[in-house]
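Weekly sync, protein design subgroup
Attendees: M.S., D.O., the rotation student, P.L. (late)

Item 1: inverse folding check
M.S. brought a backbone from last month's batch and wanted to see whether the design step gives back something sensible before we order anything. D.O. pointed out we never logged the input encoding, so this time it goes straight into the notes. Structure tokens as presented (132 positions):
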């Protein structure tokens, strides 16, 4: 694990560095600010959800930018519409019904493509070589 780096980690597996920690702290501060500014709303959960999603995509499963696009373009459209309409319930329903299952499908797709290099990489590559 590289803490002080601006280089892309090429080594397979889970990735975490100082920049990730700073981004997590910034997201939590933004959520706290939104929570204080818009009391009684679930809007403060949106940055947490987006941050958690990208952390899974970029650091845990490392699925790649092309696969991420399939998730974040529809999410931006649905979240933007829901926030503009003031209907956060619709956003959270879409998250549960569409976006979380889509994440699972994207991760499984990337693992099956054979170029997977995220968490549990060694275990998955050993089990696939044992099956041959």
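Designed sequence read out in the meeting:
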């Amino acid at each position: 694990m590289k803490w002080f780096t601006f280089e892309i980690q090429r080594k397979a597996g889970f990735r975490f560095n100082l920049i990730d920690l700073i981004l997590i702290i910034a997201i939590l501060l933004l959520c706290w600010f939104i929570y204080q500014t818009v009391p009684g709303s679930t809007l403060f959960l949106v940055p947490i959800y987006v941050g958690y999603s990208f952390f899974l995509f970029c650091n845990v499963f490392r699925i790649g930018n092309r696969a991420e696009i399939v998730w974040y373009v529809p999410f931006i459209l649905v979240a933007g519409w829901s926030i503009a309409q003031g209907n956060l319930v619709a956003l959270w329903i879409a998250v549960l019904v569409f976006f979380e299952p889509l994440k699972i499908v994207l991760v499984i797709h990337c693992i099956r493509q054979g170029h997977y290099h995220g968490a549990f990489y060694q275990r998955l590559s050993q089990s696939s070589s044992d099956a041959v």
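Discussion: Residues 76 and 82 are 10 Å apart (CA to CA). Residues 88-112 form the longest helix (25 residues).
Action: P.L. to compare against the previous round before Friday.
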